[in-house]
Amino acid sequence: MYEPKSSAALQSVTADALGGEFVGAAGAVVVGIDGSVADGPVVDWGADEAHRQQAPLRLVNVIDPGVQMTSYDVLASGSLNLAERLADEAHRLVEAASTRARARHAGLDVAVSTPWGPPASALVRLSDDALRMVVGGPPKGRLERILLGSIALPVVAHSRCPVIVVPTGTKVLTPRRIVVGVDGSDASARAVELALQTAEACGAAVTCVLAWNLEVDDGVVVTEPSSKRWSAVEQRYSQLGHATVAPVVAHHPGVDVDIVVRHGSPARALVEAAADLEADLLAVGSRGRGGFTRLLLGLVSRRVVEQANRVVDIVR
Questions:
Q1: What is the CATH number of domain 177-315?
Q2: What's phi and psi for 119, nearest 5 deg?
Q3: Among 8, 10, 91, 185, which residue has the fewest nearby CB atoms (within 10 Å)?
Q4: Nearest CA to 41 among 31, 26, 50?
Q5: Burial letters for 145-178: b for 16+ Cβ neighbours within 10 Å, e otherwise?
Q6: Cα separation, 87 vs 62, whole angstroms
Q7: Domains 7-167 and 177-315 share a fold
C-alpha cells in the first residue's frame, strides 16, 4: 500500500525526477495526465500508441510546487500537510491511469511517476529520450483552445520528441485515415515517416496534403483556377509531394497513400482536409520551410493544434 512520504523525502524525489532519473523513459511513450476530464482519452491514445510501437508506457502526473505547501490551519490541526495530500492525489491518479491502460492492452509494460516541478518543464525534460509524448488539449469552443492552456503549448514547442495532442472529449478508436502536412521540409518528411509507421501498424490509409496560397508565375499573381498558370502551380506542388513522399513510401509498400494539393493557407487547408476526410490523426512538422529557422514552433503547426479539434501529432 502507498504510504505518504515526508516533506523532506518529497523534496528528494523532486530533485531526482527533474534531474532525469525517471527510470525506463528511454524509448517509451510518455503520457502526461493532470486529473482533468482530458485524462481518459490521453491515456487511451498513449496506451494504443505504446501497443502499436511495441514500446513501454510511462504515465506521469507532475505535482506543481508553485503553491503554498502548508497553510497555518493545516499545521495547527496536525493533519497531513498539503505536500503529502498532493502526493497522495498524484499517486491515485497515475495508479488509476495505469489500471485503465492495462485494461486496454493487457501486455503493456507500464510504469508511473509523480515528479515535482513546473509541469511543462518536467514533461519536456522527460521528452529527451522518449519515443513519443502524449498530452491533452482543451475542448472545442473554449478560450483555452486558442492558447492551448498552460501545459500543452510549451510541451509542444520545446519537446525533443514528437508530441501527440489529444483534445478533451476525443473518442479514441483505431486510426483509419491519417492526414499529413507536406511542404518539402525535413520535419514534414519525418511526419510522413511516422504517419506511415502508424498506418502500417493499424491498417490506416494516409493522405499527404500540400497547400499553396499565393504564387507568382512569370511576374503574374496566379488567381484563375482554370488557367494554365494555376495548373502549373498545382503540378509543381504535386511533384514536390511525390519527391518528399516516394522515398518513405518505398519502406512501407503495403500502406494506401495518396497526395492532394489544396489552395489556401497551409493551416486551414490541413484542418479542412482532415475534417473532409474524417481523419483520426493529423500529423505535421513542428517547423516548415518558411519562417525563422530558430523558431521553436512554426505558425502552421501551432494553428493546426489550435484549430484541428482532433488528435494532432507534432513532429520535430
A1: 3.40.50.620
A2: -55, -45
A3: 8
A4: 31
A5: beebbebbbbbbbbbebbbbbbbbebebeebebb
A6: 10
A7: yes
What pLDDT digit, counting tens, does each position of 199-256 carry?
A: 999 999 999 999 999 898 888 899 999 899 999 999 999 999 999 999 999 999 999 9
The residues facing 177 across adjacent strands are 205
Task: Return all residues near 97 (Cβ < 8 A) that are at least 6 apart.
Answer: 31, 33, 39, 43, 59, 61, 112
Q: What is the pTM of this model?
A: 0.84
13 vs 84: CA distance, rounded Å: 12
CA separation for the pair 81, 35 (Å, rounded): 20
Give the residue from 169, 176, 245 showing the smallest Cα distance to 210.
245
Which residue from 12, 311, 20, 76 is spatially nearest to 178, judged by alpha carbons? 311
**C-alpha closest to that of 166 among 294, 14, 33:** 33
- Report how far residue 226's alpha carbon sits from residue 221's, in angstroms, rounded to the nearest whole number: 14
Q: Which of 3.40.50.620, 3.40.50.300, 3.90.650.10, 3.40.190.10 would CATH assign to domain 7-167?
A: 3.40.50.620
Residue ranges per domain, the chain? 7-167, 177-315
